[in-house]
Write a structure and sequence with these properties.
With 148 residues, this protein is mainly α. The chain has a domain of 35 residues. It contains four helices and two strands; from the N terminus they run αααββα. The chain has a two-stranded antiparallel ribbon with strand order 1-2. The longest helix is centred in the first third of the chain and has 36 residues. The termini are far apart.
Amino acid sequence: MNGTSTHGQPPISQGYEKRDVRVGRLAVFGAGLGLAILAFFLLMWVLFGSLVEHQAGLSRPASPLSEAAGQRLPPMPRLEPNLPMRLAELHRHENQALGTYGWVDRSNGIIRIPIERAMALLAKRYAQAKAAKAIGGAVNTTGDGNHE
């Protein structure tokens, strides 16, 4: 044998390719790719500019009636201009209503009591009903303290 295989290929013993990459062709390809990308961006910039001008030409001028109406407020409900302050005011009002006595409907005799007192009354009423059920008796659960 003369150092080549039967098919004209180099023998396997070399282990790697002896030729180098052609740098000139690689540089030409890179430069061509860069120019193509640059041309694409320039084309898109010109196209976008012409489309913006075209769209501006399609839009109609504003109605003179809209200027005559002036600044009108939008319909309700509107956004809160100072939400944190309004929220703090709401919480103060709710805490005052939940923590004090007051009239709900004076003509019908309906009052408001503090929530802690209401929970204590309900717990007491529940305990009385449970105790009465355990001993087999009936209990008045109206909360007036009178047992039947």
